[in-house]
Amino acid sequence: MISPLAHVDPSAKLGKDVIVHPFAFIGKNVEIGDNCTIYPFVSILNGARIGKNNKIYNGAIIAAEPQDFRWKGEQSYCYIGDNNSIREHTIINRGISPEGGTRIGSNSFIMAESHIAHDSVIDDRVVIGNGSQIAPDCHVASNTILSSNVVLHAGSQIGEWVLIKGGCRISGNVPPYVIMAHNPVAYYGVNAFVLRHCNFSEDVIDDIAKAYRHVYQCDTSTFNALRRIEKDIPQSDHRDYILSFIREHKLKIVAAPNHEEIED
Prior knowledge:
Elements: E1 7-8, E2 13-14, E3 19-20, E4 25-26, E5 31-32, E6 37-38, E7 43-44, E8 48-50, E9 55-56, E10 61-64, E11 78-80, E12 85-86, E13 91-93, E14 102-104, E15 109-110, E16 115-116, E17 121-122, E18 127-128, E19 133-134, E20 139-140, E21 145-146, E22 151-152, E23 157-158, E24 163-164, E25 169-170, E26 173-174, E27 178-181, E28 186-190, H1 192-197, H2 202-216, H3 222-232, H4 237-248
Helix pairs in contact: 2-3
């Protein structure tokens, strides 16, 4: 199942039924799980740890050296889970230190010509659109969609069930369940269509929408918005996730009227 026209380093560990097409390059210190397909002109480099049932398409580069002056050649890693589709000419850098590393979860669809920089974390069931650029140390939580040509600046944190529309530039923290659009980025409502498709009840979606009306549409501080949410909306896991995300990020969320910090 390995083409004689591919290069596979003798130290690389390949699982069962891995298909390696002509002109693919698999370097040293690479591990690839069962049933993966590596298409022509893919490069999988030192430090790649790839799970099962992944398809990596033409010209993609996995575990490229990090583009960071702090990296001095240390051994570092890029971890990829199971059942991912990584399309043409995507570049995923490995981390800058032996600890941590760049991490891609499972069941995600990473479209063509996107870039995921060192030490970023992409959770499960994420869609990354064509040409999107994810800078170092970002975190994209599960079930999120980045449309084409989205830019996440370094350290941006994206909550679960978020939709970011095409071409947005994000520099900061996007709370869960919302849609962000335009440049400068603006709150565009709750991601209701996707939530309904994934069996969220109308009552839950309505409570999420009420929460974000307090945050984005009541012309009050983020601190006061959280107090109103606690008072007006019944306790639930979804309400508490919104509150905890915003508090954990010290009230600094993208497109909010202001960014007050919690005092120590």
